[in-house]
Design goal:
The protein is built from twelve helices and 14 strands. The chain is an alpha/beta fold. The longest helix is centred in the first third of the chain and has 21 residues. The radius of gyration is 19 Å and the shape is globular.
């Protein structure tokens, strides 16, 4: 088989995707690429090939693809929602130019497949034409954030490159629209709008309380545990192309909740780990609240289920239990 390149290997998704791909396809066949700004996790840096790569540097990207004989790219590099609002130029360079570089360099170096995640940020605004609840896979999209607009652009490019009439453009681009992602392996990202949920669970274990929830108590957002997110990426990458009617825009869903609802689950599950009287307080962030209010409450993922057999494994309560269990072990240096 050809080699696999994972960009953004130091990020929230990449740091868990790389070990999963290496376990499945062989440690020597998966190259982890980091920008150098964030160090790669030890289990990634020491277990297989790694390279330093700035995706905005087209020449260096070309060199890396040719040098390693890359056949498939999982393009996980990206600037998250609040960071892209705070620094629009950097958001453009990473989220637009970086993806364009990956796609064009892939064509030039005979890469067969590019997997690139989209997001719930690509959906909206909501109203008569686009329902906020159970938002369809195919719907009107006019997002109000720099991050969301970049994700719509990526979805359109997936169609463009996958269906191009020019036979020289033979690139299979696939992707899913991720909800917010929960994980215990990497610390929460302050630039992420949905990362309040990770902060809540981390702080419950570390402090017994969470005092800075940036979103309103009844702000409902779709979420997913990272093992399901990794499963979605790999399953879509392996799906028979002839069965796929979409390209880079598959809704995938697991569960939705509000901060108040999550706090209730944290109290229930936390009691099993000696966490009593968990308290949550709010420190509302207008920017994050505006972003969250522009996103869906829940998503219809029937297209992914019918075209490539998508189905989540994790419930919310099971997710919280697993996260707390691993965070307690991590605190005690057992993992």
């Amino acid at each position: 088989m050809g080699k696999i390149l994972v960009t953004g290997a130091a990020g929230q998704i990449g740091s868990e995707l790389v070990p999963a791909l290496r376990k499945k396809y062989g440690y020597e066949n998966v190259i982890a690429a980091g920008s150098g700004r964030t160090p790669l996790a030890r289990d990634i840096a020491e277990a297989g090939p790694v390279i330093s790569l700035d995706i905005t540097d087209y020449s260096r990207l070309q060199e890396a693809l040719a040098e390693h004989g890359i056949d498939t790219i999982y393009h996980m590099s990206g600037l998250l929602s609040k960071s892209a609002e705070d620094n629009r130029r950097l958001g453009f360079n990473v989220n637009y130019l970086g993806l364009f570089n990956v796609l064009e360099a892939s064509i030039a170096n005979n890469v067969g497949k590019v997997i690139v995640p989209s997001s719930i940020a690509a959906l909206g605004p909501f109203g008569m034409e686009t329902p906020r609840q159970n938002t369809p896979n195919d719907t009107r999209q006019r997002p109000r954030t720099m991050y969301g607009m970049a994700k719509v652009n990526g979805e359109l490019w997936a169609d463009y490159y996958s269906e191009h009439e020019d036979q020289e453009v033979n690139l299979d681009v696939r992707g899913v629209r991720f909800p917010g992602l929960l994980t215990w392996k990497t610390d929460p990202n302050p630039a992420g709008t949905t990362d309040y949920a990770n902060y809540m669970i981390f702080d419950a274990v570390r402090k017994g309380r969470y005092l800075e929830c940036p979103l309103g108590a009844d702000t409902r957002l779709p979420m997913m545990y990272m093992p399901d997110a990794i499963k979605a990426l790999i399953n879509l990458a392996e799906a028979d192309r002839k069965r796929l009617e979409h390209h880079g825009d598959y809704n995938v869903a697991a569960y939705s909740f509000t901060p108040d609802e999550l706090a209730g689950v944290v109290r229930k599950v936390g009691s099993q780990f000696g966490i009593s009287d968990f308290q949550m307080e709010f420190k509302l962030d207008p920017v994050r609240q505006r972003i969250a209010d522009s996103w869906a409450d829940s998503m219809d993922d029937s297209a992914a289920r019918s075209e490539w057999g998508w189905k989540p494994d994790w419930s919310l309560e099971r997710t919280v239990y697993d996260m707390m269990d691993n965070l307690v072990k991590k605190q005690e240096h057992k993992i």
